[in-house]
Each structure stands twice: as C-alpha cells, then as structure tokens.
Amino acid sequence: MASSSDVLDKTAEVSGSLDMALAHAGRLLAQDPALALAQADEILAAIAHPQAQLIKGQALRLLGRLPEAQAVLQPLTQDQPRAAGPACELGLTLAGLGDAEGAIHHLRRAVALRDDLGRAWSVLAGLLRAAGEDQEATKAEMGAVRASTRDPQLIEAAIAMGEARFETAEPILKARLAAKPDDIAATRMMGELAWRMGQLDEAITYLLRTLELAPGFAAAREFLVRLLSQANRLPEALDHAAILSAQTPQNADNALLLASMMVLKGNQQEAKAIYEDLLRQYPDQPRIWMNLGHVQKTLGDQPAAIAAYRHAIAQSPTLGEAWWSLANLKTVKFPPEDRAAMLAAIEQGPALEDLLHLHFALGKALEDAGIYADSFAHYDQGNRLRRPEVLYDADETHLDAAEHAALFTAPFYAPRLSEGGCTAPDPIFVLGLPRSGSTLVEQILSSHSQIEGTHELPEMMMLTGRLKARVDQGEFASYSDLLRSLSPADRTRLGEEYIERTRIHRSSDRPYFIDKMPNNWQNTGLIHLILPRAKIIDARRHPMGCCFSGWKQHFARGQAFTYDLGEIGRYYRDYVAQMAAFDAQMPGVVHRVIYEEMVADTQAQVASLLAYVGVEFEEECLAFWRNKRAVRTASSEQVRQPIYRDGLEQWTHFNEWLSPLRDALGPVVEAFPAPPADWAEHLGLIG
C-alpha cells in the first residue's frame, strides 16, 4: 500500500504535468491556434479543466469557428461568473458574430473584473461608439490606453524614448504593432517616436491612426494639433482643435489651443470670442487677458489691447510678456510709476522668460523717457539673457551667402528660365531684415485693390529646409549641387507646391498676395528659380538704425541673429553683399525700397513700387493707415498712422555704446544706400 507521501508526490507530479500542458497550449494560441485546440482537447479528454476550456474557446475564435467558440465559452462564463478571461473571450466572440448587445454586456463584465484587458477595452470602445454611446466609448478607449501602458514592452520602449535611445524603442514598438496592429498606446507612442526622430509627416500619420482607433483620445488629438501646426497644415490643425474643444467643453486649455490655431489661421475675431468667453468664466487669468490683448492689437483696436494688457499686469505684476506687449505697441508711454513697477518686478527675480521680457520693456520705457544710458543697460541685459537660449551661427550665415552668390549667376539661369518653374504671377515677396520698413511696404501694397496682404509665411523656408535636409542626409555633396540637379519638372513642382501650400493664407479673390517673411532674402535665388514671375521686393533701412532697432526688439520667435550687436551687424553685411551679387547677375529682378527715401518722397516711391509689381496706381495706397487688415508684426501700430520721421535717428541717442555694431558693419555704413565696394571680396568671389 502506498504511503501518504507517495500519494502527495504523485498528485504533485500530475498537477505539474497539467500546468505544463496548459502553459504550452496557451503559448501555442498566438502561433498555431489549431495545434493549441488539439492540445486543449487532449487535456479535456483526461480532465474537465476550466483553463483548458478557455484555451479551446480562444482557439476556436482565432480559427474563425465562432459558433463553436460560443458553445464552449457560454457555459464556462456561467460556471465562473467571477473570472474575467471567459467573459472577455465570449464578448470578443459575440462581437465577431454581430451580437453587439451581448458582446458589450460580457466585455463590460470582463473589464470590471480586470481592468488590464486592453483588447477587451478596445473592442468595447468600438461597439459603444457604433451604438452612439460616445462618452462611454471614450472611457473605454482610455481604459485600453491604461491597460497597454502597463505592458512591460511598452514601459521598456517609453524608458528608451525618454533617454533618447530611439534605436532601442523603435524595434520594440514596431514588433508590438506587428503583433497587435490595433494597440492604441503603441500607435501613439510610434507617433511620438517619429516626431522625436524628426519624421514629422510619419508622426502625423501615426497620430491619425491612433485617433481612428480611439477618437476620444484627447491627449493624442492635442498632440496631433500641435504637430499639424508645426507642419503648417493649419486647416487640419484647426479642425482637430475644434473637435478636441467640443469633446472636452470644460477644459480651458483645449479652448485656448483652439484659439491659438484660429490666430495662426488668421481667424482673429473667432479667437477673440473664445478668449472673451473664457474670461467670463475665469476672470482672474492674466495669460488669457494677455492673449486677448494680442488679438485686439492684431485687429487694430489699440485701446482694447492696452486695457487687456493692463488687466494682465494688475493680476500678475511680474508677467514680463504683458509688459513687453505694451511696450511693443510702440505708441504707449510709460509714466514713472510703471517704470518703478517693472524695476520692482525685476528685483523679485522672476522666471527667465519673464525677466528678459521685463528688461526689454523697461529699456523701451527708459528710452521714451530720454534716460538712454539706463535704457541701453536694460536692452543689453535682456539680450544677454536671451542669447544663450537661441541657436545661431554667424559663420554659417556668411557661408550660405557666399554659396548663394557663387551659384545664382546669369549663366546658371540662362538655360533654366526658358523651361521649368511655376509661372504663376501671384506671389509678391517682401524681404530684408526685420525692422527695415517691410511692414510699411506690405501695408501700402495691401491697400491696393488687386493685392492681398497675408503675413510672414513659412512655406518658402519650409521648402528650403526640406531641400537642405537631403544634403544633410548625404544625398548631395552640397546645396548648390542639389539645386543644379533639379529638372524643369522638379522646379515646376516646387513652385506649384509653394502656391498650393500658401492658399490657406488667402481669404480673397485678389490676384496677387504678399509673403512678408523677411528671412527669405536668403532664398532670393531659389524663389526666382521656381517662381520666375514672382515679384521680389527688398525693404532696406539704414544699417545702424535697422540693426539697433532689431537688437532692442524681443521677437516672439525666430530672428536668432538679433541678440548680439556684433552678430546682427555681420548678418546685415552678409545680406547686403548677397543681394548685391544677385543684382549684378540678374539686374531688375529685385526692386529695392529704401525706407528713408519712402519717408522723404512717399508718393514717388509708392508709384515706383506699384509700377514694378505691374498694377495701376491707386490713391488708397498713399492712405495705407486706413487699411483695417489684421497686422501681426511688431510694427502693427506704426503702420496704422501716416509716415513719420521720428524714428529715423533714434539710434543716434545710443551711438556711444554701438561700436560692436559699427565695427561688424564695416564699410556698409558709409556706403548706404549702395552696397560697399568690397561686397564681392567679402563673399570670396574675388581676391
């Protein structure tokens, strides 16, 4: 007779063998459900085990034998009402059979028992959304995301992404999606990974797929809005921001995101309405008051803008951007108590962004008061704080200008202008340096009945960036080599792409439109290559006045060369030399407007400008300040009044501190408005 210990050993042996068999059958499900089914049947022939029944039901479902799966799973769920697995499998099976009501019932049971069943949450979300239960569907979608993020694979991928080990994260996520193509969290993570790796279009594709899987995934939609905005796909960004705001009506941040997309799209009035509605709900939000002020300024309602900025400052005296926004109107004079308040805010040691804004604003206030030494000190401090925060390489700008001058010559254009390039005459490029009078030129032109003013459009810069990325990736030895390689069809396609991409900024049927991106001086040659009928206007101002004005201007974004007097001087000199080289090779292509000459004889300069564009003279262009169009640049208020001379010599009050600028400009100062005699030598074309 066997001892009790022998019986226990035999029982343990049998139990261990059963566990191994069940585990083996479970592993087979993903690879070979038919073999898993055979294994489960073999176990069930020996013992009626619920885990084997579950594996059999799963295998039948995976094999598409849904009625048989239901027959196995239905009694199992009744026998085990507290088990999540059978309820989940029966729910998935019923969903496949088209029994939505039954599937929803069992899937809800499953996730109530275990909330880490990602597949159950995902299918439940789809069924609920199809049934019109959108709020419940959104909750289920978020349940699927939460379940997925507990997965060890995704945690490993997330850690790798956080540490910028993209080469580790990418194969993990791709393997996950190969196995589970409907995994919401993995799809969104692939979108973030693509964005971090600089693959913006691919990132957008993954985010769109995420929202196909989970339309209520608010965080994914918010990320998509920002990516679409970054890609300058503004209509799509606005559409998704509107959906997001409607899905989350109590979320003020999403309403603010919608308003910011409206501002970018040019829908200023709609943005204004959102800000005003938010302020009725949350009147003590200084940043919303400030944003309202920005819109009021753009719309030309200066009193309302000032009042909004003052509200923001009253609620947050250290909010540097609100102080700077007041100063940036260029028409507000600060009394002594304002200057004292700004100084007190600086002494409180606010965050860097507030601090540098305060220095720029106080510099403007002191300049207006005639306290020039202190004014310069605050401008200087603001620039010193800002400069380390931006990336800029003056040597790179010089090399780019030299490359431009060497490439875009008459012999280069001779065979190319006869074929290829988009022949649309629509664009009028106004370029140069910021604070050069370009907004004035834009306002004059946009007062004409045939010309639409837009704003500083990023499309040409984006096209250039995409072309240069091909050089960076090693496809071409240099940017010049790439441009030489462009076929007539390539040049036509690029020009047509620019025209198509800029349509979103146009709101009228006027035949011409203005692109006032100042930095496009660096793309003058490319513009003429792909848009040979486009007009190019170079707005230029005295180098000392222009550069000093740019240096004391804190730009919202871009213009990284303006935060050091020596660097902005070098930038201006390279710009003048490159444009001189282009003029020498392609005379008459670029029309130059000298700001000081426009001030001295406005009518003659306007007549010459309109003749170059090819439109009839209109008197309204001389009364440009009556133009009610939205203006978003720093000169918005200055162009809403007649031309005045007061600003021409402002830089002279600071002359004793401007030697770094004067030294960097070199012979450009004395030669103005002509280029200096050494422009070709400066670019390395001779000598």
From TrEMBL:
Keyword Methyltransferase belongs to the record: no
Originating organism: Novosphingobium umbonatum
Entry-linked Pfam families: Sulfotransfer_3, TPR_16
Keyword Phosphoprotein: no
Record keywords, A-Z: TPR repeat, Transferase
GO molecular function, one term: protein-tyrosine sulfotransferase activity
Name used for this protein in its record: Sulfotransferase family protein
Coiled-coil zones: none
TPR repeats (start-end): 184-217, 286-319
